[in-house]
Write a sequence for this structure.
């Protein structure tokens, strides 16, 4: 049966091959295809007919681009190369360049034809031969290629010179170990004065690659001025390249600098976005010391950037929006009047809408807040759930400054009774309440009855947190909790269960009569039946805690409900331009994960415990990880020198409990100084003197360091940076002593304590942690593995034996 | 710098693959497609990365145009290049589709070979390229009797032959050489309108992005002069009293355009190269000279049977002699909507419920200025509550306005000098698209 089918297929294929058609060959049976093609290529009748020959070759290439392995036709194709038909030649070269590395011996046969072509009177044939000679990428052929390339540099046709110049770069990269031929480099430098602008630009590119190890092409004053003068002759691609290379040049005097800047002014407002971006990039690198000039350039670039935002190409529009976000970091007011440009279009893709919302959020001021909120409100019911959730959290973010209007919208949205909207609204409200306690009345009213529509675990966790913290003000709190408790058996989310435990114990503290019975049931279930150890541990912890008495429990569990100080700090200080200048006009701004939408949830203590998203937006601001902080007590020599220049905070440092314990034991002396502070149980903060080892080259200002720390809830009351350059011992690395006052909301697990001999401190610390966020702590200590789990339990038990 | 370049069909078929630097293997293509398909949603992010490799892609003609590159390369340059490449392929192949790319792959390889060398863009100018490109385009247009309808009986000139068929501008630029094809030049004024109208009928935002595009099929054209409205002004300050002043906020020109006659006579001078190019771009915000083309008067009610009634009244505010075509009104409806019935004012209109978009789409093929259309939708929504009315969100309109520009920009004349030998045809076309036309309820 199958054989028959195959035969049929073959029959059909034969028909196809006979006709000069565009029928696509099937992937299956590629061997037959190759056999068929070989037969045609070697057929003398085909070879004598130019058109048929060309069409057969066309079929080979088609098969190649469809993924059929046609490498076995190499020798036939080599023969086809010797022809006067340029189209056929080009087709054969496409084939040869793809398969040459697989057939280095046979490729030697081609080189003769190619070398002959290099002598051809037609410059097009010469350039073609030269280009493909260098595209074969065979180190064994280098010796045959050098001579035609040298001749090519002096060819009278510009198109040949263009190819020859880049050919040297290809040749060099093929055999990087070899020495650079100084004569070639000199020749390339002199070709910078070539009459053809493309040859000039190619020289820059080639030299940049050849001299990579010396830091690329050297730009001195005459070359820089020469390039600037010829900028107008180049097309936009050439201009971008020249502008990029010029970033290396440092003008010798201020006059010269201003001459250059005024020369470039026209490019700054170029209608071509690549030229505009490259020019601004050059401006930023030329005058880091002249803030007024930089600001003027940014102002000037506003109009072309905004025009690019309206580009017909979505991708171009996206790139422009991402770069506007960068600019706004330093100049928040830059686009204030143009907020309408960032209203989302009707059919725009979600990724553009989300970026636009992030920009809108930044642009809010007293004049436009009504318009922007009105617009955002429209997006909340978007059919795309990501878009609608982003809109809701954007509203929540604006709510930190304009809480009444935003709460009105958010409360209205709850009426829609749609699970994804309700979930986003509840999460947004939780975050808002944490920052703006004055919103709590409205929120307490609004959350009643939400549980019916909530489906996802994130939303339910947020609701439970709100119920726990505002248990006495939400009248239905115990009854809502009861619904959750009754359904706990079928609950799948770990986070919800732990949050439920905490919330129930918290409600017990304020409304014991209504809650006592259900808490008993919940604890019973969690201790006796629950299979997950984290939940069980937490239940045990609360159980023992309750044994210690209600006052004790209150001390542990009733922490702060809000942190208004965060609200004061919302308005991030305008960053210096230098902070982002290096990433301008690179791919980095386009890749950043949504900064604002994620950080909206950062204010809340119990958020992001189990699935903390990788928060990459920090990576280019700060880089001294918490793990390094912990490591700091250990011998500095153990650490590999980490030459990471941009600092970044790692939010989820990988540190095994055993390792942590070892480190902790090594550093008792650091903590002993703070004994007095920490034994005070009302104290909200933990003072620690930390020695953070980080590279001496610490570009970032204290401000940005502070801003980055803020993002992970580390607030600094006193912040001193002392650089001890201890060259003898640490070499390049300085010792930075920072006095950090760590706010123990989010970072807790990394800073807590083990070690039996320090038990008193351990317990007080633990208590502090518990008060902040029990779920966070035990959750982080119990990511699931048994050893870790044991670690957490020991902690919990320990705290009660000492209490 | 571009390391590799490939074109994929929307289904992931490899159409074109070219490795410029030999730094990574062909498997990057499948990695890219896996990344694209793994993501939910309508379009993957423009930049994606896998190990050290960064993918930048655009969507054009239903295809993925992808370049792999390094972290520090300029996104503007790469995106612009991919757009330009797509435009070149369109110029050379006539149109942009999976089929035309598939049929012309040899031509595209040839183009790529000339356009990029070792990952560096060499040239994208069709003036330069025409000396190098040898392969001829394979046209994908099937023979159609429709094309014959323009030929009059016994070759007589008919009324229709004075209007260029819409397909005239979608042919390969190079075929003109051999086929002795018509030397034609098309000048298109294309405007994109983006409007937000508030629930109280106030225009909250009205932006126009416009451009003048020239598509040239002339093998040799030394100079062209395009005359714009004489009262054309740029910027707010130049606004002159009364009269039909045409104003734009910002305006930028192609670098080949000479503006020495622009200040006094509003004449653009340029030597168009073969193929398509954007000669001028302009923007206008918040100050349209005419009222927006459509007004919508919605009424939403609940009837006794628990159904949601949506009355829509659509008024076209254009002058009576112009008309809009392909009007489509999309009304978001509550989530649980299961079925609906409609009453439309004429049989040529149609209406459809699209559950995946949660909307009712009302399409009107043609609507002349000054007319008013109405429609009634009755929606069955189980569990309808008063809050469900809130879900009937902003209405989106899409339409096309042929022969009309929202800014009022007109082309007074189009002159070629020296006068072309033989027959040459010059076409001027105007069209306004709705980029985003939103009416809040």
């Amino acid at each position: 049966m199958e054989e028959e089918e195959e035969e049929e297929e073959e029959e059909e294929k034969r028909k196809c091959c006979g006709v000069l058609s565009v029928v696509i060959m099937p992937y299956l049976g590629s061997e037959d295809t190759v056999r068929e093609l070989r037969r045609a290529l070697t057929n003398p009748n085909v070879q004598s007919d130019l058109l048929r020959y060309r069409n057969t070759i066309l079929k080979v290439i088609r098969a190649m681009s469809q993924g059929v392995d046609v490498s076995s036709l190499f020798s036939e194709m080599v023969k086809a190369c010797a022809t006067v038909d340029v189209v056929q030649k080009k087709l054969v070269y496409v084939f040869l360049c793809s398969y040459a590395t697989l057939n280095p011996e046979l490729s030697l046969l081609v080189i003769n034809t190619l070398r002959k072509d290099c002598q051809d009177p037609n410059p097009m044939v010469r350039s073609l031969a030269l280009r493909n000679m260098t595209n074969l990428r065979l180190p064994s052929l280098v010796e045959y290629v050098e001579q035609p390339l040298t001749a090519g540099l002096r060819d009278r046709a510009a198109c040949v010179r263009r190819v020859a110049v880049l050919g040297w770069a290809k040749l060099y990269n093929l055999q990087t170990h070899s020495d650079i031929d100084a004569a070639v480099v000199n020749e390339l430098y002199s070709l910078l004065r070539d009459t053809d602008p493309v040859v000039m630009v190619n020289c820059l590119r080639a030299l940049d690659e050849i001299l990579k190890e010396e830091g690329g092409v050297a730009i001195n004053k005459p070359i820089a001025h020469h390039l600037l003068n010829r900028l107008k002759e180049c097309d936009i691609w050439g201009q971008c390249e020249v502008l990029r290379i010029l970033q290396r040049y440092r003008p010798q005097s201020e006059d010269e600098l201003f001459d250059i800047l005024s020369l470039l002014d026209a490019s700054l407002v170029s209608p071509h976005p690549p030229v505009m971006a490259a020019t601004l990039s050059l401006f930023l690198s030329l005058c880091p010391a002249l803030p007024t000039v930089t600001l003027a350039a940014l102002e000037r670039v506003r109009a072309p950037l905004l025009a690019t935002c309206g580009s017909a190409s979505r991708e171009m529009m996206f790139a422009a929006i991402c770069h506007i976000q960068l600019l706004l970091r330093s100049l928040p007011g830059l686009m204030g009047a143009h907020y309408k440009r960032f209203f989302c279009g009707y059919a725009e893709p979600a990724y553009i809408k989300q970026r636009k919302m992030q920009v809108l959020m930044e642009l809010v001021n007293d004049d436009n807040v009504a318009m922007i909120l009105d617009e955002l409100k429209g997006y909340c019911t978007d059919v795309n759930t990501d878009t609608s959730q982003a809109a809701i959290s954007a509203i929540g973010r604006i709510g930190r400054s304009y809480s009444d209007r935003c709460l009105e919208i958010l409360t209205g949205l709850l009426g829609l009774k749609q699970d994804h909207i309700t979930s986003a609204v509840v999460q947004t409200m939780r975050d808002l309440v944490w920052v703006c306690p004055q919103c709590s009345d409205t929120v307490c009213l609004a959350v009643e009855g939400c549980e019916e529509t909530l489906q996802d675990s994130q939303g339910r966790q947020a609701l439970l947190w709100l119920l726990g913290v505002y248990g006495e003000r939400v009248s239905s709190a115990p009854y809502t909790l009861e619904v959750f408790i009754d359904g706990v058996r079928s609950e799948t989310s770990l986070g919800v269960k732990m949050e439920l435990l905490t919330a129930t114990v918290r409600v017990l503290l304020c409304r014991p009569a209504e809650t006592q019975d259900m808490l008993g049931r919940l604890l019973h279930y969690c201790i006796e039946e629950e299979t997950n150890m984290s939940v069980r541990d937490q239940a045990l912890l609360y159980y023992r805690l309750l044994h210690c008495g209600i006052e004790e429990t209150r001390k542990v569990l009733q922490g702060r409900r809000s942190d208004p100080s965060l609200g004061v700090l919302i308005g991030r200080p305008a960053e210096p331009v230098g902070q982002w200048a290096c990433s301008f006009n690179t791919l980095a701004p386009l890749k950043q994960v949504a900064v604002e939408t994620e950080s909206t949830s950062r204010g809340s203590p119990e958020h992001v415990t189990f699935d903390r998203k990788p928060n990459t937006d920090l990576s280019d601001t700060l880089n001294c990880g918490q793990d390094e902080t912990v490591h700091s007590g250990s011998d500095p020599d153990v650490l590999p020198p980490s030459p990471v220049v941009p600092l970044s905070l790692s939010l989820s440092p990988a540190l095994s409990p055993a390792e942590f314990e070892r480190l902790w034991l090594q550093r008792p002396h650091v903590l002993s100084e703070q004994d007095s502070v920490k034994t005070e149980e009302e104290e909200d903060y933990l003072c620690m003197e930390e020695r953070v080892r980080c590279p001496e080259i610490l570009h970032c200002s204290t401000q940005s360091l502070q801003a980055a720390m803020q993002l992970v809830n580390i607030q600094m009351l006193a912040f001193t940076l002392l650089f001890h350059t201890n060259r003898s011992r640490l070499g390049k690395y300085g010792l930075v002593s920072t006095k950090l006052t760590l706010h123990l909301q989010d970072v807790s697990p990394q800073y807590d304590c083990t070690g039996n001999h320090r038990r008193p401190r351990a317990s007080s610390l633990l208590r502090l942690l518990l008060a902040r966020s029990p779920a966070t702590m035990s959750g982080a200590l119990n990511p699931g593995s048994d050893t870790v789990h044991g670690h957490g339990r020991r902690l919990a038990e320990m705290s009660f034996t000492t209490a | 710098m571009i390391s590799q370049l490939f074109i994929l069909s929307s289904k992931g078929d490899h159409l074109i693959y070219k490795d410029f630097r030999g730094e990574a293997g062909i498997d990057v293509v499948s990695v890219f497609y896996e990344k694209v398909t793994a993501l939910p949603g309508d379009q993957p992010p423009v930049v994606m990365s896998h190990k050290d490799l960064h993918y930048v892609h655009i969507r054009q003609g239903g295809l993925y145009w992808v370049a792999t590159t390094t972290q520090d390369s300029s996104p503007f340059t790469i995106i612009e290049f991919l757009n330009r490449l797509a435009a070149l392929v369109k110029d050379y192949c006539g149109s942009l589709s999976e089929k035309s790319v598939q049929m012309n792959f040899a031509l595209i390889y040839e183009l790529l070979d000339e356009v990029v060398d070792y990952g560096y863009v060499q040239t994208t100018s069709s003036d330069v390229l025409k000396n190098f490109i040898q392969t001829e385009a394979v046209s994908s247009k099937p023979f159609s009797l429709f094309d014959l309808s323009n030929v009059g009986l016994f070759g007589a000139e008919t009324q229709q032959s004075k209007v260029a068929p819409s397909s005239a501008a979608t042919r390969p630029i190079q075929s003109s050489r051999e086929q002795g094809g018509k030397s034609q030049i098309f000048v298109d004024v294309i405007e994109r309108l983006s409007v937000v109208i508030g629930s109280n009928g106030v225009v909250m935002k009205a932006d126009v992005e416009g451009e003048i595009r020239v598509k040239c099929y002339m093998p040799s054209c030394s100079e062209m002069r395009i005359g714009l409205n004489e009262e054309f002004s740029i910027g707010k300050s130049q606004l002159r009293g009364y009269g039909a002043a045409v104003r734009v906020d910002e305006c930028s020109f192609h670098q080949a355009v000479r503006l020495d006659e622009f200040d006094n006579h509003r004449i653009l001078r340029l030597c168009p190269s073969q193929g398509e190019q954007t000669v001028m771009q302009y923007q206008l915000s918040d100050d349209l000279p005419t009222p927006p083309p459509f007004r919508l008067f919605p009424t939403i009610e609940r009837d006794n049977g628990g159904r949601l009634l949506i009355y829509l009244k659509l008024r076209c505010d254009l002058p009576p002699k112009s008309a809009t075509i392909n009007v489509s009104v999309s009304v978001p409806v509550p989530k649980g909507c299961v079925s609906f019935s409609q009453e439309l004012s004429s049989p040529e209109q149609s209406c459809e419920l699209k559950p995946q978009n949660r909307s009712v789409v009302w399409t009107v093929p043609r609507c002349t200025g000054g007319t008013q259309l109405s429609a009634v939708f009755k929606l069955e929504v189980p569990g309808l509550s008063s809050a469900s009315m809130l879900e009937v969100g902003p209405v989106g309109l899409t339409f096309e306005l042929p022969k009309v520009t929202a800014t009022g920009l007109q082309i007074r004349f189009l002159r070629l000098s020296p006068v072309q030998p033989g027959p040459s045809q010059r076409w001027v076309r105007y069209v306004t698209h709705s980029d985003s036309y939103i009416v809040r309820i």
